[in-house]
Amino acid sequence: MMKALMKLALLVLMGLTICLGGCQYLGVNKEEQVRKISRVAEINRRMLADDFEAITMFDRPSSLSRWLVSTE
To answer: Model confidence at 56, in pLDDT bands (50, 70, 90)?
Structure first.
């Protein structure tokens, strides 16, 4: 019973290590990691700016509508 419990605890610990630690950077050098993180941060920054403009309605109205939209 004790051995089975120890094996289960070891499997859970290994599973958590893989899930939380991740294997996404295996075989990737430091420059590629930095480039990926920088790219993600830039995309997040742009999306945040777009969201802010949409919430505050600073963005221009879309010209894709088939209805006449007044911009004044």
So the answer is: confident
Contact 60, 71 (CB under 8 A): yes
> What gap in Å lies between CA 48 and CA 41, rounded to an integer?
10
* pTM of the complete model: 0.46
42 CB burial (10 A radius; 0-12, 13-18, 19+): exposed
Distance CA 36, CA 32 (A): 6
Structural domain spans, the chain: 26-57
Length of the chain: 72
| Residue the block writes with tokens 């879309």 | 62
For residue 42, give the H/E element and its range. helix 30-56
In three-state secondary structure terms, 51 is helix
